[in-house]
């Protein structure tokens, strides 16, 4: 019995690459293997490469060989003339009757399975001996919105497209015989994305190469190239590890311009540009549930093809949403390209016992920074996200639209569009936090709650209405004192809701919370209590709440603070400023500012000693360790648990820390002192000065 010229996609798999080309083999694999897993792949059928060979063999092949004999592809006029003659020869030669019959029968069976009559998409799928099919992708024609009466002509045109000028030139330049290539044609029902949206999914971040992200783009209309000056796609980034756990981790999104779209042209076989209504441009082209569904499908596709090849295999997936039914479909999947990145050789770096973390400000850079050697993020400031991604005072959003400032009211209305005001803040803040936390997962990421000063808060849109004017904002209404005060309590509630969403809904439980500028233990207790009221309960789901040690009282009464907080992180800038009584922004006295001053170091030693007594971790996240290697080494010698460095300082700091640890390891190896007992004996001393920190501590009673 002769092999059929037409095969259903349900009978095609990756093993049929030679029979139907890579594109149709992938489509068949999707429909046959992944549809049972819930991936909504599109039904269809394909003609075989043998059907093409049957058509082209004999006198037609001889005629085309004569046309192309001795052609010089550098001669553009000659190339164009030969290409047209070859295509005309193909179109003038009738398709075999048995192929025509099987194509029409395949169409009828497909319509019967669909239960309706539908236009179809007709796509070329080349197979070439000795050449990866992906190398010649995009050289052959596809046709959209094809009815049964145009099906045979569309297949005929696909065959002719093997001899476009571009395809002829490509094969000639690479030394391939034009007749070692064959063509399969895939036929599938049209998905009416012209009434909805379509796009591409990458199962890694295409810019940084970060493998634990799914990046999904979407625009209105049929997938294809429109004027890039008028269209940028909507884009979402989804975090794979917690997506697989059933969470909803959309960690970033970008609203595209979407001014024009491609729609089907009833007067042609293709598409045409149309203007997107203005009301649609300002909204996302997919809802979150659809984004997460597509991301989960993309992960299933990646897992399947990785299992087939025996190694991790990022994928590029085309999808579309049918505007008439609202259903999502996967149209195509192919192996994706891994971005070329400069490999960073860190094999020479020594291991350290002190945890080396990063200060990360900009969420957009977090994926790239995660490639640096690190033990997590020691400081992520909410202020950067609020100032750059939101720009609006949180209390202005809580009171919107009942604001006195008309200009601020109008700007807020423009920015939030139709979104609920406080949800606008919570969503943007939570996604900014998540974008930092995700690439470092499951390593700890310390997120510091807001520490804007009143003059900085006032510069946010709508801020002047809610901020007092202070003579010295550095010592004023900032940090923890705002969180339970009625003047900002609702704003802090939004911060807590964002943090809770990151940890609970997105599953990024590696996020720890750090409280800045907390002046008293009573204030610390009140803040922890307020956080619990907003769903951030200390210890629940592993939540740890740290305190910033940056006010002298934090060091002097460290025992009391560490009964409340789960750990400490030293903010050396503020601690030095307040200890020395210096405004580091003042040109007249700033030269006296130095975190390495004996008094500052004495307070830091007190804090480290108290942390060891309490059995709680303590680190440092100020700028001094990055700027002053000797200060970083001093912290290590005094047994700090972790230090957070600026990204540009991390590589050289590894060496600094390792050298500082060497004598400590030698002493411990000799059995002279254990880590736990390091602070139980005499306190460390500084060159030229005898330490009195221990004696002072003994004289202090709580």
CATH superfamily of the largest domain, by name, is Phosphoenolpyruvate-binding domains
Helix count equals 27
Query: Care to count the β-strands?
Result: 21
Shape: elongated
Distance from first to last alpha carbon: 96 Å
Helical amount among residues, as a percent range? 40-55%
Beta strand %? 15-25%
List low-pLDDT spans: 673-702
Mean pLDDT: 90
Just give the CATH class of the largest domain: Alpha Beta
Evaluate the radius of gyration. 33 Å
Which class do the helix and strand fractions yield? alpha/beta
| Count of structural domains | 3
Features:
702 residues, alpha/beta, Dna Ligase, domain 1, D-amino Acid Aminotransferase, Chain A, domain 1, TIM Barrel, 3 domains, eight-stranded parallel barrel, six-stranded antiparallel beta sheet, 27 helices, 21 strands, elongated, disordered C terminus
